[in-house]
Amino acid sequence: MIKNLKKHWLAVVSVAYSLIVALFWLALRVNWSGISKQFGADTDRSFFIMETPLLICIFLWLAFIYAAVASFLWSGKKKAPFIVSLAVSFVFTIGIIVVVTMGAKDYLRFILPAFGESLLIATCLAAFGLLLFFPPQGKGKLCTTLKCVTLGIAILGTVLVAFDVKANYFTYEAVVYAVEDDYQIVFSTNDESLAWVEVDGKKYYDLYAGSRKSKDLVHKVTVPQKELDQAGGYTIGAQTMIYRGPFGGYKGKPFTKKYDFRPVNSSDGLIYYSMSDVHGSRKGARLAAENVKDMDFLVILGDSYTLIDSEYDAQFTNLLAGDVTKGEFPVVYARGNHEIKGKYAEDLHKYVGSKNGNFYYEFTFGNYDGGNKDVFGITLDIGEDHDDDWWEYYDTAQFELYQAEQTAMLENIRDNGKNDGFKYTVVCCHIPIQFVNARHNHETVKKVWTSLLNEIQPDLCIYGHQHELYPFLTDDEFGNKLTVNTPADGDSDSAYLTYNSQFKPNKTYSGYVTDYNFNGFIVGRRGNAQTDKVGALNTKDHIGMETRVDFANGWQTHIYWNSKGEKVSVYNPFVDGEAKTEFKTKLK
């Protein structure tokens, strides 16, 4: 066998190399639209511009097939076919390096696992093919051992798959999301299970149309806010559903875990922390959040991960929330535009706080009979960051209809004074409402929502998306009115968002701000300073914002923390002045 490999080494290398290149290009498909964009797809939607990445993929697989066929026809006889194959693979290797360098490196955390998985499958298939078509001959120990190991693996795999043999346990800890006047408690198991939450002796179940769900790994159980707030603790439970038949079934042994819980209490003010655009920087986000003591609730403002393409990606927000809250106090979630991308994106509502499969809703804390009305919140979801007709969405985006539903919700809140009587009102949205960019994306809806929020009068709006630390303020802590230059005569192309002569950002966004009269902040980014440059694979540095609300004096204080335990010095880019480590704004 070794002699044959030496004889046919050029064919083996040619086939393997062409396969590796083809598999890597296929794994690069998350960046195929970016490749088309470099060829001019933003303005030229011709077939060859749009489909060039796919055509290259087809060509590379044909090149692999050519190398494989050549290995049967000419291996050991001719060298030219294999030299040609190697040359083609080398040329496209250079092309892959260029693509990665120009932007795909930001997505390597998705590309490399996909490539590794496909390469492993290809290797296993090749090994299986060799054993099937070229089985080892003879009765030597090595030959016998190889046959026994192969047979043993086949038998073991069959048993594990056929009988679903595995230990049962919780794979993701409980997270308590606030939605309307309820809590949605989310946790996961390693096998398909029945699930429940027990609060003060009463069980609440994970249900579908009156029946207990049993085929999911992720479980969401709704509990009335009042019940959990008063109980101060809860227990999650699950029981594996081994077989669910028409008139009978088999279940495993129940397993449970207890959690303490402390509700939001505004008697001594509020302390909450907001994070956004973590993009996989789990360690950095956790370290930054640890600077905030006695947190009442956590707000996650989207783009926790860059792509929702797997179970892990969908669970990433729960990992973040679990790191910070340990399931012991509530979480508010607003979806980011990157969480609309990937094959698991349509299932994301199962994993986080949502209402009827949507990511816009009201939420409250302390709003039950006989209790204090502490916090009224609004979660909004603009959707993607371009308008619906943007070519990269391949006709899947219908966010104008979705935004209209949210406009109706805001009108209902305004018309019925739904936040009246609450001590504090906060609005959470991934994409900033107070800023319209140079592309004018979502310009109309941002103006409409700004007008409605001017009437609702939130104490604060918090955002993410821009990867910047920007305040949108109406006045300073001394009561001086702040004015931001807005475009004259609607000429938004002539306005720029940076006015502070001392502020030197990495980039300046042309555009303008809406006519708002409420305060807002973009709360987070990866990094440790306002303008530092962060590598795509950096997972240890992140900045988020703490908000401390002082009801007695009518103030709230906003502090940006980084993962090194430092207060971040931040300029207001829209007015001249020194950088601050704390911003103070008035309550409405």
What do you see in this structure?
This protein is of the alpha+beta class and 588 residues long. Helices cover 33% and strands 22% of the residues. It contains 12 helices and 25 strands. The protein has helices at residues 2-7, 9-27, 32-38, 47-73, 80-102, 108-133, 141-163, 225-231, 282-289, 311-325, 399-415, 443-456; strands at residues 170-179, 182-189, 193-199, 202-205, 207-208, 211-212, 218-224, 233-244, 249-251, 255-260, 270-275, 297-300, 331-333, 361-365, 375-380, 424-429, 435-437, 460-463, 471-472, 511-513, 520-522, 525-526, 542-550, 555-562, 583-586. Strands 11, 12, 13, 22, 23, 24 and 25 form a 7-stranded mixed β-sheet that branches. Strands 14-15-16-18-21-19 form a 6-stranded mixed β-sheet, with no helix packed on it. Strands 3, 4, 8, 9 and 10 form a 5-stranded antiparallel β-sheet that branches. Helix 4 (47-73) packs antiparallel against helix 5 (80-102) and helix 11 (399-415) runs parallel beside helix 12. The protein is globular and about 90 Å long. The N and C termini lie far apart (81 Å).
Topology, element by element:
Elements: H1 2-7, H2 9-27, H3 32-38, H4 47-73, H5 80-102, H6 108-133, H7 141-163, E1 170-179, E2 182-189, E3 193-199, E4 202-205, E5 207-208, E6 211-212, E7 218-224, H8 225-231, E8 233-244, E9 249-251, E10 255-260, E11 270-275, H9 282-289, E12 297-300, H10 311-325, E13 331-333, E14 361-365, E15 375-380, H11 399-415, E16 424-429, E17 435-437, H12 443-456, E18 460-463, E19 471-472, E20 511-513, E21 520-522, E22 525-526, E23 542-550, E24 555-562, E25 583-586
Parallel strand pairs: 11-12, 12-13, 15-16, 16-18, 18-21
Antiparallel strand pairs: 1-2, 2-7, 3-4, 3-8, 5-6, 8-9, 8-10, 11-23, 14-15, 17-20, 19-21, 22-23, 23-24, 24-25
